[in-house]
Amino acid sequence: MQAYSISGDTLNYEQLGLGLFPDLPPGPQPTVTTKKRILRAPKPGVDPKADDPSRPSARPGADFDGMADALEQHADFRVQRRLKPRWQWPATPGQSVTRVLLLDTETTGLDAAKDQIIELALLAVDIDNVTGLPSGELRVYDGLEDPGRPIPKEVVAITGITDADVQGHRLDDARIAEMLANADLVIAHNAGFDRPFVERRVPQFSALPWACSFADMDWRAQGRSSSKLESLALALGLFHDAHRAEMDCHALLAVLSAPLTQGPGTAMGKMLQAAAVPSFLLQATNASFEAKDKLKARGYRWNADQRVWQRLLPDDAALQAERGWLRDQVYGQRAAVVQVEQLDARVKFSARHGVLSQQQL
Predict the structure, then answer these.
(1) In what order do the strands lie in the sheet with 117-128?
(2) What pLDDT digit, counting tens, does each position of 296-307 carry?
């Protein structure tokens, strides 16, 4: 195998492209100076385009993007690129749009009743109702809040947010209210976690419809092995600084705006559809212990508080099909009654209840 060498700031690109892999198409020969990748929203008084000499990508003479382009043409390689937030999308004059708020939080723990938000990010974007693509300019709010007590060490380890970072900070309620006033829909990746936290801190969130890019989207049907946001981004060839609220919002926008691998449109379009119709939380009441593996494989989750297996279904057609599956596969054709909760987008994923009913199978 032929080696490549680096002399000073110059890499022998021809050897990298052709010596190691003879069938790899030759990459571009000229070398260029790359610019700093912008990772977060521009901050007042800071030039986001300024070169950062501490970053390897700022070294003169190294065409890293060219190398990545060349490797992507080879079947034996997959290239991961750092996510670059996109602030402007092609406008669609005359098309109807939905103003979406992408939301993410970082918190001191998992319990919305006693833990606090330490970071909240909102990304406002217009979505073309026909194409499911972003339109126009993004608006972003990202704020920190002092929880009034030490942040647990495990949270600091995950988020990198320290007590010193949040000391004396408070969320900008006026700015948040302004963004909420112009929003039609809130989308979060795991809205069942984020919604109770933000409604407790900012009650105005309860007036808006919500959708969840984790629960309202069948990622497995799209060929994805995981529904985690980081994994979905990696499947697109993108990595980012996860567990910081604003960058997670940018990653979510990239994931939802990408073309679906199965079927037309985007996942963002699916979110708009999910918010427009009621969904149904079906509980397999009094299902036998022996049926747990079937229920788990089917997508049911165990509700430890109510001690019942349950599954969220996207529409009435899915509910009727699931009733038949339960009757045949879980209850063995015997008479059974299941609980169904009808949820519209204004109560779904919140701590509030929808319309409850008992249905005979």
Answers:
(1) 88-89, 134-144, 117-128, 97-107, 185-188, 210-212
(2) 999 999 999 999
